[in-house]
Amino acid sequence: MYLTLDSGAPEMVVFAPVSDFDGLVDLIAENAGDPEVDGDYTIFSLPNGENLYLTEEGDWTFAAQNDEALENLPGDPGAWIEEMSSYTLGVRVLAGNVPTEMKEMAMSQIREGYEQVLDSLPPDQAEQQRAMSGMQMDQLEEMVEQLDELVVGLAVDSKAKELHLDFAVTAVEGSQMAEQMALQSDAESAYLGFLLADAAMNMAFAQKISPADAEQGVQAMEQAMEQAMSQMADEAGNMTDEQRELVEGFVGALKDSLAATVRSGRMDAGASIVLDDETTALVAAVYALETGKIEDSIKAIVKAIGDEAPPGVEFNLDARKDKTANWHEIVIPVPAGNAEAQKMFGESVSIWLGVADEALYVAAGRNGEEVLKRALSGSGQAVEGRSAEINMDFGRVIDFVAGVQADDPMAQMMADAVKGKNASMSMYSEAIDNGSRSRIVICEDLLKVLGEVGTMFSQQGGAQF
User: Fold this and answer.
1) How many Å separate Cα 387 from the centre of its chain?
2) Where are the alpha helices (DSSP H) in 306-408?
3) Rg of the chain over all Cα atoms, to the nearest angstrom
4) Which of 122, 371, 388, 424 is disulfide-compatible with 281, CB 3.0–4.6 A?
5) 96 close to 147: Cβ distance less than 8 angstroms
6) Other Cβ atoms within 10 Å of 152 Cβ, number
7) Where are the alpha helices (DSSP H) in 193-345?
8) Are 38 and 22 in contact (CB under 8 A)?
């Protein structure tokens, strides 16, 4: 079936290949009574007072409740079915066929609705939101105008034992939106090594940005930071002038770095979380410019803290320097009375910050340095054409929690439920002609585990963690 706007309002049209049209008419007549025939239309009067219009077009029969919906029939709807044949359930929106007047009306209503929301806010807050949202509304309007197709599809891969949920967007060929999406076809992350196979969660992300989009992004970011700083100034009544100056300096350094990075036309990052008996670590890397300003700001903050740091906290600035970065460390003691935290991290947690000319690195937790070295030296699990990827292994998370909470029966039951199963899911984006497709992949084992865990919760009356 499909929706048409030929009558000025959405109308549903159902179609099917029918070899015996007269036989179909006779079948419907057994329940709805004899029809009327008006030209190409066979019309049934239904018990609810509505009419049902049938018509033939080639090997296909079309049905609708309004004859206007049947005026401009597709030549071969079988081609639509073929394009969606990979999905068990799918929806395809041909946005390019929506009349311009309807798009303009929809945007007008969205803008009016948002203005009503802003009018309910205090004047100062409303003006700040209006300044930030104006550009976002313009971007939304451009997207509505330049969107060609939207596809949402659900598929079951019985061979791989996976469930796929796809979101595909294509733009009008030659549009600014299409040009921006085309940039992603050769975007490849420099941090694919963070897609560690033994991670509980990992991700890699790369994006190319056109100069026009970069400037819009920088303006939106600067407006958001200015609003945040304004709110902080209103709420930070207990801050000294020195503290306020340090905070403003750090925010300013962060803003300069973000602006320079976005204007370079490149965004790139990778991260990984490893959880097992020997390791509890978060590691990350991000492409960044003007990183020296951030480093100088952090050093100024640490210097100002001086001897006022909490007991046991150590700041080791310029702890070491290698070919990758200049490294700084903060050591935070784990409370002796927190047995679970000590089991996860040991007696203290080290957080490392690496500053390079065009990158920032973070390693936190037990064995964080070793995991970061592994991520930076590895090639990862790269798949050609993917500009972003996230993988999550819930089995590793549940096993880790069960190891920490050895006396918790629910945690142990959940660990038994995932044993020997691939309880994972992933999400990735890839470039397609004039657009992009994002896919969520859920393993069958994860659905089984969720069912078993749900049963446990209902039997136990809810888990206590």
Assistant:
1) 13
2) 339-345, 368-377, 394-404
3) 29
4) 371
5) yes
6) 14
7) 211-235, 241-263, 291-305, 339-345
8) no
* pLDDT one-digit tens code per residue, 290-329: 999 999 999 999 999 877 888 889 999 999 999 999 999 9
H-helix or E-strand containing 269?
strand 266-275
Q: Which string of b and e fits 238-256 if b means at least 16 CB within 10 Å?
A: eeeeeeeebbebbbebbbe
Q: By three-state DSSP, how is residue 75 classified?
A: coil
Residue 385 has pLDDT above 70, yes or no: no
- Chain centroid to CA 382: how far? 19
CB 288 within 8 A of CB 359: yes
**Rounded Cα–Cα distance for residues 316 and 304 (Å):** 14
pLDDT, tens digit, 9 for 90 and up, residues 90-144: 888 888 888 888 888 888 988 888 888 888 888 877 776 776 677 778 888 888 8
Which pLDDT score, from 0 to 100, does residue 379 have? 53
φ, ψ for residue 256 (rounded to 5)? -65, -40
d(CA 274, CA 374): 12
Residues 6+ apart with CB under 8 A from 23: none
Task: Report whether 141 contacts 149 (CB < 8 A).
Answer: no
For 94, 103, 135, 262, 429, the CA distances from 140, given in Å and listed in that order, are: 17, 11, 9, 20, 21
Contacts for 114 with CB less than 8 Å, ≥ 6 apart: 133, 137
Which CA distances in Å does 150 have to 94, 145, 262, 376, 432? 7, 13, 28, 37, 13
Cα(87)–Cα(155) distance, integer angstroms:
4
Distance, CA of 463 to CA of 337 (rounded, Å): 24
The C-alpha atoms of residue 447 and residue 84 are separated, in whole angstroms, by 25
Cα 253 from Cα 292, distance rounded (Å)? 9
Residue 215 and residue 397 in contact, taking contact as beta carbons nearer than 8 Å: no
Rounded distance between C-alpha atoms, residue 198 and residue 196, angstroms: 6
For 38, 391, 393, 420, 443, the CA distances from 414, given in Å and listed in that order, are 65, 20, 14, 12, 17
